[in-house]
Give the backbone structure.
Amino acid sequence: MEEILPAEKFAGSIGKTYRDSKPHWAEAKKASPDHPNIVLLVLDDVGFSHLGCYGSDINTPRIDALAAKGLRFTNFHTTAMCSPTRAALLTGRQHHAAGMGTIVEWCTGYPGYQGQVTKRAATLADMLRPHGYNTHALGKWHLMRMTDATAAGPFDYWPLARGFDRYYGFLSSLTDHWNPELFCDNHPISRPVKPGYHLTEDLIDKSIELIRDQQCSAPGKPFFSYVALGACHSPHHVEPKYIERYKGKYDCGWDEIRKKWFKRQIELGIIPPDTVLTERNNEVIAWDSLSSDEQRVCARMQEVFAGFLEHTDEQVGRLVDYLESMNLLDNTLFVVLSDNGASDEGGDHGNINIRKHYAFVDEPIEELIANIDKLGSEYTYNHYPKGWGFAGNTPLKWFKMDTFGGGIRDPLIIHWPNKIKDQGGIRRQYHHCVDFVPTVLELLNIDAPQNHQGIEQLPIHGKSMVYAFDNAQAPTQKKTQYFEMLGDRGIWHEGWKAVTRHKKGTDFEADIWELYHVEYDFSESNNLASQFPEKLKMLIDLWWSEAEKYSVLPLDDRDRERTAASLKATSRKIYTYYPGMARVDRLSAPNVANRSYQIEAEIEIDEHGTNGVLFAAGGRFGGYVLFIKDNQLIHEYNCGDERRLILKSPSKLSAGKHHVSFGFKKTGSLAGSGTLSCDGIEVASLAMERMWPLLPNATGIHCGRDDGSPVSESYSCPNTFNGNLKKIIVKVEDDQEIDFLKEYYAALADD
């Protein structure tokens, strides 16, 4: 007879009727009464010195209060970039071994670079659910291939398939805080429309909502809330009132601010008193060499960042207040950390539209100055200059994506009143984000599964930090930790560190390794390579051994170029879309960059005034849109600034059915001819040049409406089409070169 009973063993008995039968109710696993709630709150691109309690003058009183009643760790490390840190943090496995050697967009298909967390590495949420926990993930996920962010999935690597009961947030690396692209559980949702809306506030609201609802249904049941804020990654978005609190504070520049923050770090005991403030690295411009206009716009960008971080701190405080109001805070393990160091991605002078940096497009300083009053608003996608990232990593010398201290040494605060007695204590033992999962497992006295959902699991690679909770003087129990990011390499072993900063495109064998005794040299200021060559060789050999062990190889120093290959592998020639469809993520959209393509639509319009979007790809900071306005057909290509390439039919379309289209014929690198047609007749044409070298659409695509920030400023979102739209067909041609950089640099040479 076919087995139809549930997997759980039935302990009752079955007779002919219920009168002579005995029922059995399988009970769900209950957590131990002393198991804490867990809140893991991850900040983004917040450097070692950015928080007030780590030395800055930025107002972060609510996070500082957690530190004052908890523990601050000053020797805590990450992987130098977001996706890899999150993979190690949530699984307890080294990031390459988990399949996340770099961010998901730059996956390459090798075991250590899959762009998704291997199923051989169950997450902490997977481990906690069988022990009576509810699990919530909020905010940034960035642990799956973005080509899978579709209504058809596959959903195997979305949060709900990786141990979380609920999810609300964004799946990609960053998003617009005023107009975010959000998902709820396993589906995209429309842009929230609310006066004064801000994503950080929304994520905290949703965190509170999920905890409230869970406690109403199961009072006392523990929860694990993974709250991964988009703050303070670019774009730096915040209301003017927060920015104005810092007006004039940074006019002295990043060189002076580093000195001030360094002095305060010593006063706070965050760094040893004999720490050396590293000199300005050779990629950062001296503040005094900037013109007065350059200084003005650069200072304003730091004011915006500071306001953004203060606003974030305020929202963290709301979550803390809610937990306290529910009498949950004392038995909540509340953890705050950053995923990597502060960023240098803003270049020398910062950005109005950071997408241009990612696409290798420069923004003239005149453009930055002209938009200074818009910084932080919904009209900018801004990021600060690398000099402020340098200051944010004080006293360290490099940045996010580097395996030097500025990329990998980050703030960590652990608050748990019921267990942490040394309130306000500082811990200097060496730790890494891979150590978080084994810490929780030890606190709960549970083991990681050796088999999960029928899949044999990797061993836990991290080392518990619990030994340091009650003993500030306890010696570090960790022995070795390797690092690798985009060809940069490093290894820490028993207080010594070997590290090399690889230059993209050069021979890996020619890299120059440096050696630091970081147990006594906090800021990595004294290179001992020439004094201890044997120690350096031993550490380099150890790095290669660890690289073999954890799937680090092959070394690869490419970054944005990798995206082209992954997009090519998942692309098709014809795309069909229907009005009312769910948003399609940008990396699953037709890739029309630097190639010929055509957009076709079957529509029916009304003589009294038909309006609305037929097809929109992207938003205010880059994209293209085909729409009708007052019965005129319009195509607009948004270059990410005030330069718009606009085609408009010279006369209104007559009432009735029409076949309309926009076609682009590539004639050169990043250039070609655009044509509008109606019923097979060309009605307008335009020479188009200096187009986006990578994906032109900053965000996803919509059919029959535009549900983000508007691609065109000639309408307001959602600008739903009020005529009859049957479908949209997008066709792409074969004339696109996969080496976008080759074409881009060729275009620059022609200018």
